[in-house]
UniProtKB/TrEMBL annotation:
Species annotation: Ruegeria profundi
Similarity comment text for this entry: Belongs to the LysR transcriptional regulatory family.
GO molecular function terms attached to this record: DNA-binding transcription factor activity; sequence-specific DNA binding
Pfam families: HTH_1 (PF00126), LysR_substrate (PF03466)
GO process terms (BP): DNA-templated transcription
Keywords: DNA-binding, Transcription, Transcription regulation
Domain HTH lysR-type, residue spans: 9-66
SUPFAM superfamilies tied to this protein: Periplasmic binding protein-like II (SSF53850), Winged helix' DNA-binding domain (SSF46785)
PROSITE patterns listed in its UniProt record: HTH_LYSR
Keyword DNA-binding among UniProt keywords: yes
Name of the protein described by the UniProt record: LysR family transcriptional regulator
Length: 299
């Protein structure tokens, strides 16, 4: 049940309070909200009377929220943002629902995006909105319904749907490959390229080959796409997912830097918060994704 109306100030009052807190004056809040200063003052006074507490401290030409009001406006700001996002979702798809999905750039571009047309055909009532996040986040403060996660089951408070295991290969440009490439030692002195979100990838790869190597340095990249291009152009050796480099290997733009056993550094998962009821768009997407996973296993 929603709280009694006496505990629910009007949206104009909440907007006035939020703007005064952020901008520090009634005049600035009035300009942003296209109101007069007196209208802002009336909104604040009305809220104080409704809630029965003082919200504003006045000092010279600036307005400051009381400590209690500061805490209150943080919650109000989150609620206003959530309401605005809900309105945008409704406007974008008035006949159905929407799914806000956080993706990882390389996986989203090369694995998920080519398959989304099938989901759109099967579920025209659902609008999928994609945005990039490179690391786990707090679902309570972000507007996402679900996310693509890589690594282990180390994201607290979420449900997991395993999608696929990622195998990585050490690759380089043909020009960088030495004559003694059959000796793994050449990689310990080669220029090794690194991904920001996987700082220990090379150490783990060497360990899987039975070699303990530490203190590895080299160029750092934030995405596989730029690291892959740097590898093609001879800047170093990179650990790249096999699903990303099939075409480059086939075309000879990249070659294996070592022919040892394959190594997996983690898995891809669909994750969604345990604290929320599963929406119908998310349920449709999860069911469809499970079908894509099953299809990939069979093939």
């Amino acid at each position: 049940m929603i709280a009694p109306r006496r505990f629910l100030p009007s949206i104009p009052s909440l907007l006035a309070l939020e703007a005064v807190d952020r901008l520090g004056s009634a005049s600035a809040a009035a300009e942003e909200l296209s109101l007069t200063q007196s209208a802002i003052s009336r909104q604040l006074k009305s809220m104080e009377e409704q809630l029965g507490v003082d919200l504003i401290q006045r000092s010279q030409m600036r307005l400051h929220l009381t400590p209690a009001a500061k805490e209150y406006v943080q919650v109000a700001r989150t609620a206003l943002n959530q309401l605005a996002q809900a309105s945008l979702k409704l406007k974008a798809n008035p006949t159905g629902g929407s799914l806000n999905l956080s993706i990882l750039p390389a996986f989203g571009m090369h694995w998920l995006a080519p398959r989304l047309q099938d989901f759109a055909r099967r579920h025209p009532e659902v609008t999928v909105n994609l945005n990039t996040r490179l690391r786990p986040f707090d679902f309570e403060s972000e507007r996402f319904d679900a996310a693509i996660h890589f690594g282990q089951r180390d994201w607290a408070g979420v449900n997991y749907l395993p999608i696929m295991r990622e195998d990585v290969l050490p690759v380089c440009s043909p020009e960088l490959l030495p004559d003694d490439a059959d000796d793994i030692d050449w990689l310990t002195t080669a220029p090794l390229l690194h991904l920001e979100t996987r700082p220990d990838a090379w150490e783990r790869w060497f360990a899987a080959q039975g070699r303990m190597v530490s203190g590895i340095h080299g160029m750092l990249f934030d995405q596989f796409s730029t690291m892959g291009q740097a590898t093609i152009h001879g800047l170093g050796v990179a650990l790249l997912p096999s699903y990303l480099i099939e075409a480059d290997l086939a075309a000879g733009r990249l070659v294996p830097a070592w022919h040892g056993p394959g190594v997996s550094l983690g898995n891809f998962y669909l994750v969604w918060p345990q604290s929320r009821a599963e929406s119908e768009p998310l349920r449709s997407f999860r069911t469809w994704l499970q079908g894509q996973i099953d299809k990939a296993v069979v093939s």
